[in-house]
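Q: Hi! First time doing this. I have a protein sequence and I read that you can turn it into a structure. Is that right? Here it is:
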Amino acid sequence: MISTFLVQYPWITTVALVTVVVIGPLLGSWLVDRRPLNRWLAGIVAVAVLVITLYPESRTPAPGCQVSWMLPTLGAVELIANIILFVVPVLLVGVATRHPLAAFAAGTLASVLIEVVQAAVPALGRSCDTGDWLQNTIGALIGALLAALALRLSRKRPTRRSPSSGSR
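A: Yes, that's right. Below is the predicted 3D structure, encoded as structure tokens:
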């Protein structure tokens, strides 16, 4: 369903990726001091990723895992969509934990686990593909870089003063 929509409007994935890259560090910087909200958003996005990648489809996948190593190009709908899928969760987790590198590692591991489940549970009707892992890992790397930038931006802004700390 999502794939069909994106194929009809292939520009959406490229615009979404550019938008996340531009807005992500600013949003992440704003979320640094809002940890509970950031954690909720990260959880919601993580559940969305699991639903998108593990929701059963009515088809019979090829057994095993397809090996492909395609690098993405702008306009390649599925490849860019797989990148975007991991940018936002890794950005949010990187900002929430203040450890973008650990968030990158977790994102890469999550992608591996998703592909393993897709290969191990044929009843899902999902196909395991190393290319999906590669695209997800590129997305996790972008998310970690955006999280690092967001953390840097949050350190450069002036600290907020509480109303009671003003001079009298």
